[in-house]
Structures are given as C-alpha cells and as structure tokens.
Design brief:
Strand content: 15-25%
Largest sheet: 7 strands, mixed
CATH topology: Rossmann fold
CATH superfamily: Peptidyl-tRNA hydrolase
CATH architecture: 3-Layer(aba) Sandwich
Number of helices: 7
Number of strands: 7
Mean pLDDT: 93
Order of helices and strands: EHEEEHEEHEHHHH
Shape: globular
Low-confidence stretches: none
Length: 195
C-alpha cells in the first residue's frame, strides 16, 4: 500500500495575544509557528481580515501560510475559517499546532482528526470548519493532576526543566517539516514519534 500523502497549505499556531501570555503553556502553538517562520524566512504581520498575524514561508519549495489567531484561544476558529475561505484551503490541508495537557513536556505527536479533548481552541476550530478532519501537532505541556486546575495551569509559564523539554520537542517537530511540506506524512510521523 502506498504511503499516505498530504498537500499541506497552512499551519495555524494556537495561543493568546499579548505580552502577559507570551511565556504561558497555552502559547505552545505560537512558539512552534514563530520558530518555523524564523527558520524559513517568514515575518509575521497583522492581517485584519484573518483576525490574526500572518506570514508565508517556503519549506522544500512548498509555500505554507502560517497564522497566529489574535482572537484569544476560545475564538480561534474565526481566524482559521477566514484564512481557509480566502485561500480556498481544504481542512485536510491545515495543521493546527497546540498545547496538549494529556502529553508530558517533551512528548509531541502528529495526528489527523479526532475530537477536541476539552481544548477550547480546537473546539472552536471544529465548530467553524464543520469538521474534525484536519492535522494536529500536539505539543505536550503536562497536566496539573486535577481537572479543576487546568485553566490556571495552562495560563502559567512552565518551569525551566519543563520549558527545555517543550523546546526540544518543538525542535524535533521542526526537523520533520521537510517531510510534511512534501506530503510524506507517514515518514514524518515515524521520525517524530521515534525518540
């Protein structure tokens, strides 16, 4: 059976705008797209019609739109829908990078589809797109231990050791971008999920 190929067009990093949120765990998706853009010559600019900051970059000759919604996490879907509608991008052609409390710091997973797992950014994107069928880059940030502590936990900065593990996992994800950009999903997953 042939390896599954994707035609990736856009990467959305989830987070909250403003200096007070920059270092918080909930902004892990922002960290990923910011580093991706920096590594590949992109420079974010405010784009009102997309309710966010946008840039494009080229990875292995493939053009990728990178978006950081500035609507706050719970309204991320508004920005994503505006982008995919304007550029006629199918949901299956987007990758959403987000913090994942169900994975420990240092763990990172690439997947297609599935539910929102209580993540309000994903919940809103699913609502606006009308489908769960898009790619996700799940960046492990750890869990506080009790569900009622989650909201405060993700809006705080990680400790130094955890932050180093999260940064290392983002490094590993950046290394598979050539495979993702050229549509080699299975190869990218195998490389990312093998430490």
């Amino acid at each position: 059976m042939a390896a599954k190929r994707i035609d990736l067009k856009a990467i959305i990093g989830l987070g909250n705008p403003g200096a007070k949120y920059t270092e918080t765990r909930h902004n892990a998706g922002f960290w990923f797209v910011e580093r991706l853009a920096r590594d590949h010559g992109g420079s974010f600019r405010q784009e009102g019609k997309f309710h966010g900051e946008l840039t494009d970059c080229f990875v292995e000759g493939s053009k990728l739109w990178c978006l950081k919604p500035q609507t706050f996490m719970n309204l991320s879907g508004q920005a994503v829908r505006a982008l995919v509608s304007f550029y006629r991008i199918a949901p299956q052609q987007i990758l959403v990078a987000h913090d994942e409390i169900d994975l420990p710091p240092g763990d990172i997973r690439l997947k297609f589809g599935g539910g929102h797992g209580g993540h309000n950014g994903l919940r809103d994107i699913i609502s606006h797109l009308g489908t769960k069928d898009f790619y996700r880059l799940r960046i492990g940030v750890g869990h506080p231990g009790r569900s009622e502590q989650v909201a405060d936990y993700v809006l705080k900065a990680a400790g130094r050791d955890d932050q180093r593990l999260i940064d290392d996992s983002i490094d590993r994800a950046l290394h598979i971008m050539p495979q993702l950009a050229t549509g080699e999903l299975e190869k990218a997953m195998q490389q990312l999920h093998t430490k």
